[in-house]
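About this split. The held-out portion is used to measure sequence recovery: a designer receives only the structure tokens and must propose an amino acid at every position. Recovery is the fraction of positions where the proposal matches the reference. Here is one held-out target exactly as it appears in the evaluation file.
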């Protein structure tokens, strides 16, 4: 896990400060898209927020963990290419991991060209 920790003024559970961690991301290209796995220990599916705005995918997850006496929040953002079908992205959180599947748009999938 990345140790990019920053104190922020963001409100969390009534406290004024928290530790923000940029979680490591394991990115794998597969046949029909891209899989991204994030390590987010202490956060479950109800604690995760995913948002896409102007092709920017943003992850925010509130954790039950604390560092230096402050609550931990995970945040990470990625710009998405036009080749990603953003309407069909799926996500699943379990055992401290968040798995995203970003499917390729139809025009970006490999296809054969007939030679005449």
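Reference sequence for scoring:
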């Amino acid at each position: 896990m990345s140790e990019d920790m920053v104190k922020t003024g963001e409100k969390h559970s009534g406290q004024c400060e928290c530790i923000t961690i940029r979680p490591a991301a394991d990115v794998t290209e597969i046949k029909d898209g891209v899989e991204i796995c994030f390590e987010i220990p202490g956060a479950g599916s109800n604690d995760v927020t995913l948002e896409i705005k102007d092709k920017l995918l943003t992850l925010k997850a509130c954790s039950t963990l604390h560092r230096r006496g402050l609550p931990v929040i995970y945040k990470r953002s990625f710009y998405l290419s036009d080749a990603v079908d953003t309407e069909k992205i799926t996500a699943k959180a379990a055992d401290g991991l968040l798995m995203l599947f970003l499917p390729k748009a139809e025009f970006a999938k490999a296809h054969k060209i007939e030679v005449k």
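Annotator remark: The chain is about 0% helix and 55% strand.
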